[in-house]
Structure formats: structure tokens, C-alpha cells
Specification:
Elements (H helix, E strand, L loop, with lengths): L5 H4 L3 E4 L5 E5 L7 E11 L5 E11 L4 E3 L1 E6 L4 E8 L2 E3 L2 E5 L2 E7 L10 E10 L3 E4 L2 E6 L8 E9 L7 E5 L10 H5 L3 E5 L2 E13 L6 E7 L6 E9 L4 E4 L5 E7 L4 E13 L7 H4 L6 H4 L14 H9 L3 H11 L16 H6 L6 H14 L4 E8 L17 E8 L4 E4 L2 H6 L13 E7 L22 E6 L10 E6 L3 E3 L3 E10 L5 E11 L4 E9 L3 E10 L7 E9 L2 E10 L1 H28 L6
Parallel strand pairs: 3-14, 29-35
Antiparallel strand pairs: 1-2, 1-5, 3-4, 4-11, 6-10, 7-8, 7-11, 9-10, 12-13, 13-16, 15-16, 17-22, 17-27, 18-21, 19-22, 20-21, 23-24, 23-26, 24-25, 28-30, 30-33, 31-32, 31-34, 34-35
């Protein structure tokens, strides 16, 4: 946040004792002696270099004072080409850089004395931290300002090049449609993103060990699909026994481990992030419709989300909607940067209320979920990777490979799980992380039915092993889009008999690393009618659906050739089989009886015909 507290901390004031004699009164001016009005322009070049121009007017409220110097403190070292001038000409700035900050001191050329008189000057510099390209997205973050009683108007104009692409979000919107005002800048500044989709390549490493005496199955959680992200598992070595989706939507890859077996797993994952419009529905985002009976589980009290506690219930009566709950969390809890230097222990919602000054992302998330659930609002936790270039303003709090946690609430009208980040809302001084998130949050695991499981990637570390288990690289282009590959198969006898049932199964295997959604599966037979039809099927990556076949072959069918045809996701497979009439069964049975009789006659009579008598 840039410091514009000019009239007290960073100015020297001069009081006139005689007509031609001025001596310093103090290095600190009194409140109300001057008002500072600002017009600030941020002109961003296609390269991302931002030219910041401050046009400042200091209005004198005394007859015997004048401003001598001006100081601005910037929270960055990436500043260059600093120039300034006033009505008396060019000002040579004094620049000091220390502790990650840049201080610019200007000494004015002219001393303008008199009630209502104005000292006007312009400061211009290039800031390299305002606009950054992260993958395929340009991000613009303009810091807010500190509140000051001597600050008058403060208007901001921002210009971005058309090469940045479409505006994904702009928060807050300019007050008059063109410019931002003083109140908006005090509340946290301006945050914007340009581009429609973000792409990231993940390398995730997992370690499993069966310490038991018997074989068992263990699971790892792979990043799931959601309304805001689409996942492609490009590689997974070794391959799992199966991949299932749990009730929260997590992908769980299952591995069978023998007693004492150790297993290292590596997954290559591509994630596409998008930000649906405010009118988007989950039906268009991920195909999942949540029923009321499913949502009831997301209102329950669980460990760390003690929504049945009296103190939590009292807050839920006062704060009844997600925005009010978010605002309460942001202004009540304080982020503790010292706490994350050790291995922090999760406290839960009640403990967060008791020690609000020592909170990290877990407490911001747990308290939001607990109050929301107590208010009857379905809520859950998301754990994953959050990209930040400024850990002070946008900290990540979970120590296992530096992950982050944030909550989601369910919007009943839109049918969407909406992610919010009250932690960053607090640490950025009020940047809006409620109405729209950003392209920097990647979901690794969703916690709803459980408050702590499944463990996300980054929490499967082998003891004593060094290095990162989570690597994230943002991409400028998506590369080759993933293709869903389905393989239908039919396992059915080659010969069946009329009048009897025949059993088999049909399978549709997804051999790709992306979920197959909205798959229509149809199975039918001839020359008799037997139809199985399934609509809107979902098949997990590296998984399959199995459809049992239990068909009664009509008695009336004479000897003929039958067929089963199955179509799944545009691919078809056929299986032929012979149908024997039921009469063949009778003939076969008669033949078997006759053959058995002859065999018995031979067995009985043969020894007597060949018996030899002794003399």
C-alpha cells in the first residue's frame, strides 16, 4: 500500500515571523493546515511497464505556512526513471531504498505562502510491479492508500493496452465509470485481470507406504474438476487400480499395496482455469446438479467447523448471508505472519474467535464455514495452490509445499459453489476476493463431508526426503487440448439357448486423463428386443463403468444368429452369438440319455462275454 500521509509525517512547515524572515516551526505539521488533492494516472505499456503520474495540489489553510518538502513511500524496489517538477522547474529527487521499499523525497523550488494558495507539482516514475503477466493472464494490481484527515480528493485513471485482451474482472468498478475515487483507494486499491483462460502445468509427487501386516488399498487425491477449473491427468505412474470420484467431487486414485510395500507416484496434470460470469450456472460449468438432500451434509457441525456452538450460533443470527459473514471475518481476524514460520497447528472456528490476532488461512476458512453452516448456508473448504508474488499481501499458510486454504459457499439461485478468500481480503487491505476470485487459486482437494480428508497433493511426503512435491508452472498457451478416449467392450457368451437367461456385462473404459461427461450409453440386441439406455453418464479418468447384462432369450426363437450392439460416446462395438432353439436342448438331452444307457449296457455285459473259465 502506498503511503500518502503527506501533511504530517513527511513535510516540513515554515512559519513567517517577519516579512522577509522564515524559520522552521516544526518537522511535523498540525492537522488541517493543508489539504492534498491528487490526480493519479497509471498508463500501462504492452510490455507491462507502468508510467505513474501524480499531479498534486497542496491547498494552504494558513496565512503563514508553506510546504517545503514532499515524501512518498512505495512498497517496491522496482521503480525507475523518477522525475518531478513544480512551478519553479525541475526537482531533483532524493531516492532511498531499504527494506523492500523506495522513499522519494522532493524539495520544492518555490515557497508559496498565503491562505488558500496552492503548491502544485508533478511526480512521474515507472513502476515495474503494477502489471505482471502470469501464464496467459495479465494481472494489474494498483495499491491502495492510507487514510489521512488531510487527504482531499484522490482520483485515479488507468489505461491498459488492447493487447492485454478482454477484461476478465475489474474490482472495484470505477466510481464514475472512468475514474476511481478516494474512498475506493482507501478500501484496498484496484485489482484487474485480462484474458479469458489460464493454464497451468502441475507435477505432483506422492509417497505411500503400507506399514501393516496385510495387503491393503490406499488412496491419493488428484486435483478435481470444478465449476472454475478443468483438469487433465496427462500422466500417472504407476497406473492405479482404479480412479473414483467421492461425494465432494475429488478424484481418488487407488493403489493395492502388499505388506511393507513402499510406492512413489508421480502425476503430470494440466489445469485450465476460467471465471464464469455472474449468470453462469454449474450445469454449464461441470454438469453437476446438487439436490437439497445432498446439501444437508454441508450444513452439519464437524471438527474445526463447530457450527452448533453457542458463540457461532450467535454470530449466525447477526450475519445471515455470505457477504456479511465474509466482511465480518475480514475485519475481525488478523493474519499472523510469525505463526507460519513454524509448523502451525489448526485451531478451528471456536479457537479462532478466542485468539483472533493469531490467525492464518485455516482460521479464516474454518470460521467462515462454521458461521455459514450455522446460518443454514452450505459451505465447505478448498485446499490447493495459490500463486502469489507478494507473500505479505497475499500469503499462503499451509506449510506442506506451501499450500493455501479458502472457503466456498453454495449459491442456491445459480446452483454454484462460489469460492471466496477472506484471508487475502484481510491481508490486501480490502481488495475484493468475494464477488470474484482470480486465476491464481488451483484446487487440490475439497473438504465437505469431512473437514480434513482427503489429504491434498503436497501432504504425501516421504520422511526425510528433500525437495518439493508440488511444482506449478503457468503456461502462455494451452497446448494440445485433451481428448476423451472411450473403449466400449461386450463380454457375453457366443452360444445361448432359447427359453433360458444369458448373462454377461458391458463396459465402457475411459483411457484418457480427463473426465468423460454427458456420455450416452445404449445397448440393444437382435433378433429379439432387449435395450439398456443410460443418459448423462460420467466416467472418471482411467476408470470404467460396468453394465450387467441379464437377458431372457425368447422360447419361440428358432435357430438363428443374434447380436448385441453397444454405442458409447459416439463409438460402437458389436458382439455376435448363436441362438439354439430349445428343441436342440431336448434332442441333446435324449442323446445324452441314450448314450448313457448304451454305455451302461457295455459296462455291464462286456466282462461276461470275455470271461475265461479255468479247467
Amino acid at each position: 500500500m502506498e503511503n500518502y500521509s503527506l501533511l504530517r509525517a513527511f513535510m516540513y512547515w515554515i512559519i513567517g515571523l517577519l516579512v522577509y524572515l522564515f524559520i522552521p516551526l516544526s518537522q511535523t505539521g498540525a492537522v488541517g493546515e493543508f489539504t492534498a488533492n491528487y490526480d493519479v494516472s497509471y498508463a500501462i505499456a504492452p510490455s507491462g511497464v507502468t508510467i505513474v503520474t501524480q499531479s498534486v495540489s497542496l491547498v494552504n489553510h494558513q496565512t503563514n505556512l508553506y510546504p517545503k518538502q514532499y515524501t512518498i513511500l512505495l512498497d517496491t524496489l522496482n521503480v525507475r526513471n523518477i522525475i518531478a517538477h513544480d512551478d519553479g522547474g525541475t526537482i531533483t529527487p532524493t531516492i532511498t531504498q531499504d527494506g523492500g521499499k523506495t522513499e522519494i523525497l522532493l524539495s520544492f523550488n518555490k515557497q508559496i505562502v498565503g491562505l488558500g494558495k496552492q503548491t502544485q507539482f508533478t511526480l512521474r516514475y515507472e513502476n515495474l510491479d503494477i502489471a505482471q503477466k502470469n501464464g496467459s493472464i495479465w494481472e494489474v494490481n494498483i495499491p491502495g492508500i492510507t487514510d489521512d484527515a488531510d487527504l482531499g480528493t484522490y482520483n485515479v485513471n488507468v489505461q491498459t493496452p488492447p493487447t492485454f485482451g478482454p477484461t476478465s474482472y475489474l474490482k472495484p468498478l470505477p466510481a464514475d465509470g472512468k475514474r476511481w475515487n478516494r474512498d475506493q483507494m482507501i478500501q484496498g486499491g484496484i485489482s484487474a485481470a485480462y484474458g479469458d483462460k489460464q493454464y497451468a502445468k502441475l507435477t505432483l509427487r506422492y509417497y505411500l507406504e503400507n506399514k501393516g501386516l496385510a495387503s491393503g488399498v490406499q488412496e491419493i487425491a488428484l486435483p478435481p474438476d470444478s465449476a472454475f477449473q478443468r483438469v487433465s491427468i496427462d500422466s500417472l505412474s504407476p497406473k492405479p487400480e482404479e480412479v473414483i470420484k467421492d461425494d465432494d467431487g475429488n478424484w481418488l486414485a487407488r493403489y493395492a499395496l502388499k505388506p511393507g510395500q513402499k510406492l512413489s507416484i508421480e502425476a503430470g496434470v494440466t489445469v485450465m482455469l476460467s471465471l464464469p460470469s455472474l449468470t453462469a450456472s454449474i450445469a454449464t460449468a461441470s454438469g453437476k446438479q446438487w439436490e437439497e438432500n445432498e446439501l444437508s451434509d454441508y450444513r452439519k457441525s464437524l471438527p474445526f467447523w463447530e457450527s452448533d456452538d453457542a458463540s457461532i450460533k450467535a454470530l449466525a443470527v447477526q450475519y445471515t448471508n455470505p457477504k456479511d459473514i465474509y466482511d465480518y471475518i475480514v475485519r475481525t481476524l488478523t493474519y499472523d505472519h510469525e505463526r507460519v514460520k513454524t509448523t502451525p497447528k489448526r485451531k478451528g472456528a471456536i479457537a479462532a474467535l478466542k485468539t483472533p490476532q493469531s490467525s492464518i488461512c485455516m482460521e479464516f476458512t474454518d470460521l467462515f464455514i462454521a458461521i455459514a453452516r450455522a446460518a443454514g448456508i452450505p459451505a465447505r473448504e478448498v485446499v490447493g495452490y495459490a500463486h502469489t508474488t507478494n507473500p505479505k499481501r497475499q500469503p499462503v499458510s499451509l506449510v506442506s509445499d506451501i499450500l493455501h486454504a479458502w472457503p466456498e459457499y453454495y449459491d442456491q439461485e445459480r446452483g454454484l459453489w462460489i469460492p471466496v478468500d477472506p484471508t487475502w481480503g484481510n491481508t490486501t487491505g480490502g481488495v475484493d476476493y468475494f464477488s470474484q476470485l482470480d486465476f491464481n487459486h488451483i484446487v487440490f482437494a475439497i473438504h465437505g463431508k469431512s473437514s480434513s480428508l482427503p489429504l491434498p497433493a503436497g501432504f504425501y511426503r516421504e520422511n526425510g526426503k528433500e525437495g518439493k512435491d508440488v511444482t506449478v508452472q503457468f503456461l502462455e498457451s494451452p497446448g494440445t487440448p485433451p481428448i476423451v478416449t472411450l473403449i466400449p467392450r461386450i463380454n457375453f457368451p457366443t452360444v445361448v439357448t432359447a427359453g433360458f437367461r444369458a448373462y454377461g456385462e458391458a463396459t465402457v473404459e475411459n483411457t484418457s486423463g480427463v473426465e468423460a461427461t454427458n456420455i450416452a450409453i445404449r445397448l440393444e440386441t437382435s433378433p429379439f428386443s432387449y435395450i439398456i439406455s443410460k443418459e448423462s453418464q460420467s466416467i472418471a479418468p482411467y476408470s470404467k463403468v460396468v453394465i450387467p447384462i441379464n437377458v431372457a432369450i425368447p422360447t419361440s426363437i428358432t435357430r438363428s444368429l443374434g447380436a448385441i450392439t453397444m454405442t458409447a460416446g459416439g463409438r460402437s462395438v458389436a458382439h455376435s452369438f448363436d441362438i439354439q432353439p430349445i428343441s436342440w436342448l431336448y434332442l441333446s438331452l435324449s442323446g445324452m440319455i441314450g448314450s448313457t444307457g448304451i454305455l451302461l449296457w457295455i459296462i455291464i455285459t462286456r466282462p461276461f462275454s470275455k470271461r475265461k473259465h479255468k479247467k
